[in-house]
Amino acid sequence: MPSERPPSDAPDPCPSPGYGPAPGSGPRVERRSLLRLGALLAAGGAAALVPAPIAHAATRGQGTDTVTTTYRGRSPYGNDQWAYVPFDVPAGVQRISVATTHDAAAGILDLGVFGPSGFRGWSGGARSGFTLSAADATPGYVPGPVEPGAWSVILGPMVGSTGGMAWQVDVTLHHGDPLPRTPYDILPASVPGQGPGWYRGDLHLHSVHSDGQRTVDEIVTAARREGLHFIATSDHNTSSTGVTWRGNVPGDLLVVNAEEVTTRHGHWLAVGLPQGEWVDWRYGPANQGAFESQARRVHSLGGLTIAAHPLTPAAGSFWEFGLDRVDALEVWNGPWTLDDAANIAAWHVMLCLGKRVAAVGNSDAHSPSDAVGRPHNVVYASSLSTSAVLDALRQGRSYAVESAAVTLDFTARTGGAVAGPGQELPLSFFDAVDVTLNVTGAPDTIATLYTEWGIMAATCIDAGGKGQLRWRGWGKASMFARAEVRRLKPASTTLDQLVAITNPVWFYSAQLPPYDVERRVLFHTERRPDGSWSAMRPLPGPAGSGSGSGSGSGSFAGVQSAVAGMPDGSVVMLGIAPDNGLWLTAVRGSAAPQPWQRLAGPDSANGFTVREADIAAFPDGTCQIVATAMDGTTIWQQRRADGGLTGFRALPGLTAKSGWGATKVSIAAMPDGSAHLLSYGTDGAMYHCVRGRDGVWTAWGRMAGYGGAPAFSGPALAITGMPDGSAQVLAIGLDGMVYHQSRRTDGSWTGFRPPRGVSTATMGASAIGIAGTPDGSAQVVAVGLDGRLWHNVRLPDGSWTPFSQIPGPNGRDPFPAGQVRITALRDGSTHLAAISAG
């Protein structure tokens, strides 16, 4: 990874990447070996972890700059267990180093670490030690400041000996001067200039950040060599890969951030995660709804869920959560084996039941001897962008091939209608259906066509590698058709080799896909001054087609929303469409909204896309909009009282010549006409600044965390202004819990505190919103861990009402949501915008 710093005008603030030990310093792990890796912790702090029984602890070096404490313990027989070695870090520590030893004959010892603010790294059994600091970190571990407080080494003993496993952990704390921090780059969401077409990509790749032997630069080189257009870096149970890109993001290859969530009951790929996001793993099939909750969270982030090598017959790898509970199955994992044949057989049964779960093929490459992109997916996408590629994969608009030499053209026709993989061909009962498969680059193979009735046609492809397979069906006599190409030569565990496989063309089905991004619809509801809620209603999308957010009489399909209550009683709404276009409308009461307007980018650029956006309404009838562009740059503009827009421009950063980089943003209007902005910088920490009435911006200031932590980090935030000139902040921490604090009129902060949950001491949530009302109270909404909308009120005296559920469109049933925002009007009513979970 290059170590050069970005130019001085790069977005800031900046977290620190770094590699620590040289790549490949851990033991070699082959691709098809049992990975036997644990996973990162998704909630709670080190103080909440149950410590391991320590047989002995000794400290040496006290009073010096390097203090080492040795912990010894023993874990019992078993695989599904976790142990935690807690230790305290005093102020002034700049680096933590951990080394472990264990009785290797007794089993495997997985390793990770958790800090006061949450997850800081995981390497499973690939490493026996690590180091981390603000300036660098061993691959698999997240660089950043060493916070004082309670830390914990995470151990995952997989013990095969009935006598147990003895282990030792050495924790070394290094004092010294503060170390510099270095930025990471935001991965571009698209490759410019690439329109509709077929694109090749591998979604399952491992680097030195877990048990892989390649650096990300070496993965990129190998992907280019194979002729791929996109890749996903999916290291086991760590977010570190995503936050260590620095000066080496390729401009010709789409890189998608991902994670292989490695539970002890099956592995799955969370593809399309924002950089720095990680996914909980601490559940099994007995934890009812736990996997579905995590999949719903990935979907709310715009991601894709794929069961990885689901029928690999190995402890911890075999999929136990249900094959129909994911967006796709990895039916082909690396070199063709009997496991893959079982995957395809199980997938075919699902298709026969009408379950539209897509199939993918990936290399799962770990070592340099594993070929990146063999196999890989060929996807028909509207552009070479993350959202378009993931949408196409979700719909099954793809096929998998053994190498870039192989190309398929698979279509079904009736009359003038044509459909390809993942599409449905509209048919009557007596329509003739002509299915054609054209193959190139597959010499000496056999092409086969399947429906739910089995093999319907087959043909040999000669040494030239080109051939055609044709079949005619009738009406709805078949539910689907799909194709395979195989080579009749033995592989390691089979008598043949798979060369290519398509997703089906559908003729009809009683079931819809388990998840569809176009079903994420923007809803609106009002809470009246008497506390009652109006019925949830979907908002219509823009007129015309090609907007990426629904068309004509359809509803607005979106991934995020924001709302601002105007002095005249109307509500201005922002909506981010599935193509990341930013749209604006206004709603008054139950009347139809004004026509949607797509907002242009800086310098009036058309087709502008954003990651996040928020809006605030001011007493003079103006609005201010803040957004993060796809490259992380934070931009701002004003909507005048007459509805005109001033145009986006970049916000200043920490220096006069730099811009501000952020992953999440929120804006609040204050009674004096100033604006308060809140953001998570690219270092993951929360920052605050003020835009005065004169248009002058204050410097960005980093917010303190909960319980004295130096910073607050998490996946969501919101800020609102109060009638008395104070402000209130709502945020979700790295532990998944909701936190609140106030900014007093003198500029001081009260400090974060967690409000009580529905039936527990704290409230877990995946999305939040807050709005100050004229009476001095604050209306709070949250998408709970159950995926439903909840509401409560923080009263002017600082007390809280209990959380209550917000009803759905019929006024009764709960409303499942993925994202939510709320605003208040002068009459005491509040308006809520929510994106349905789909």
From TrEMBL:
Q: What is this protein called?
A: Polymerase/histidinol phosphatase N-terminal domain-containing protein
The record's annotation in SUPFAM superfamilies points to: Fucose-specific lectin, PHP domain-like
- Where are the stretches annotated Disordered? 1-28, 530-554
Give start-end positions of Gly residues composition bias.
Answer: 543-554
Out of the domains of life, which is the source?
Bacteria
Positions the record marks as coiled coil are none
What PANTHER family would the database entry show? EXONUCLEASE, POLYMERASE_HISTIDINOL PHOSPHATASE N-TERMINAL DOMAIN-CONTAINING PROTEIN
Q: Where is the composition biased (Pro residues)?
A: 1-20
